[in-house]
Write a structure and sequence with these properties.
410 residues, Thr_deHydtase_biosynth, repeat, alpha/beta
Length: 410
């Protein structure tokens, strides 16, 4: 019988003395075989592989949550210590299900306990961080798929037990920072890392910068090779944002002669790329406050993923006379990359409601980020939520997003 675990929502309900959901969450590992093509996510493939093992009497081999698997992954720690020259300060390990870091920590802490083991997770796939925070394994309702090599909704039972005892800290990394580290590695070594492989590198850089470490020996494990051209396109667009060399700004220009020239005069010597502002120092971006003094209201949207993924591509289309559509609701869906995914969505929503906006943003084999506008009367919102849930794709409402209101409805 699988040990019990709870979702993040259930834990918050429990902390607020509110009865938690009665639904249970089952979890298992996955076999690296033909079963991996089953379903829309890593977790779907895991469940299917285990089910096939039980039905057909096959041996199920988990990818991380087993002492033998953990022991094998611990040989990475042995190799690191055997090849290290001089004192080693820390080892940074990308974390999905936790097998790699559990194995490394188990070996390194026995041989060289002074070496810190730091786990690094994507900020939108931080199941280990949340589990350690709450003191028990938790399942994410949604998991970001950009770093697909670590896109796991819940960590293993044995890996969690070891990490509770042996791990020294955590660094959470944004998608922009991952892209910046991929670019850095390519420029320095001509190697192309997958996002999960760049995870530890980005975490090590953030950790060393935060603590002001210089002249120290640290190791960042760059594992995996899940990279394709769709994902590379996203990396090239976001790398400079992650390095704070580019900013995304929105400026409201008055409809009068000379306003665009006034805007360019206020930008000054800062390079404009695709009408994003190229900055080399934070102080240069702070100087953009002069826009407000010139009555050119400017908003910094650099941290807004909705803008970077979708809205900047849609402005000309929307400004062509399609503003303020009645009852328009904005949603972000994650479509699986497989035939029939779009029709499954359309069967649920069309022609029941008008689809007013659709922007597809592929990010690789794990799924596509899709921005959808749908005209739904307020009285029919409950029905729309039910239909969205039945489709089975991760989704979120974005209508109240500040950037959406600014750029699409101003």
């Amino acid at each position: 019988m699988m040990p019990s675990m709870r979702t993040v929502k259930e834990l918050k309900d429990h902390q607020n003395n509110t009865p938690a959901s009665s639904s249970s969450v089952a979890f298992c590992g996955t076999a690296r075989c033909y079963c991996c093509s089953w379903g829309d996510s890593y977790d779907d493939a895991q469940a299917y592989a285990k089910k096939r093992g039980e039905e057909e009497g096959r041996t199920f081999i988990p990818p991380f949550d087993h002492p033998d698997i953990i022991m094998g992954q611990g040989t990475v720690g042995m190799e690191i210590l055997s090849q290290s020259e001089g004192p080693l300060r820390a080892i940074f390990v990308p974390v999905g299900g936790g097998g790699l870091i559990a194995g490394i920590a188990a070996y390194v802490k026995r041989v060289s306990p002074q070496v810190k083991i730091i786990r690094v997770e994507p900020s939108d796939a931080n199941t280990m961080a949340l589990s350690l925070h709450y003191g028990e394994r938790v399942a994410l309702d949604q998991v970001g798929g950009f770093a697909d090599g670590v896109a796991v909704k819940v960590v293993g039972e044995e890996t969690f037990r070891l990490c509770r005892e042996l791990i020294d800290g955590v660094v959470l990394v944004s998608r922009d920072a991952l892209c910046a580290s991929i670019k850095d590695m390519f420029e320095e070594k001509r190697n192309i890392l997958e996002p999960a492989g760049a995870l530890a590198l980005a975490g090590a850089e953030a950790y060393c910068k935060y603590y002001g470490l210089k002249g120290e020996n640290v190791v960042a494990i760059t594992s995996g090779a899940n990279m394709n051209f769709d994902k590379l396109r996203v990396v090239t667009e976001l790398a400079n944002v992650g390095r704070r060399q580019e900013a995304v700004l929105a400026t409201l220009l008055p409809e009068k002669a000379g306003s665009f020239k006034q805007f360019c005069e206020q930008v000054g010597s800062i390079n404009i790329t695709e009408f994003k502002v190229g900055v080399h120092r934070v102080s240069e971006l702070e100087q953009m406050e002069r826009m407000k003094a010139a009555n050119l209201m400017t908003y910094n949207l650099t941290e807004n993923d909705l803008v970077k993924d979708h809205l900047r591509y849609l402005l000309l289309f929307r400004w062509g006379g399609r503003l303020n559509l009645q009852n328009e609701v904005l949603c972000r869906f994650v479509f699986p990359e497989r035939p029939g995914a779009l029709m499954k969505f359309l069967d649920a929503f069309s022609p029941r409601w008008n689809i007013s906006l659709f922007h597809y943003r592929g990010e690789g084999v794990t799924g596509a980020n899709v921005l959808v506008g749908i005209q739904i009367p307020h009285s029919e919102m409950n029905e729309s939520h039910e239909r969205a849930s039945n489709v089975g794709y991760d989704y979120a409402l974005l209508t109240d997003d500040e950037a959406f209101r600014l750029l699409m409805h101003h």
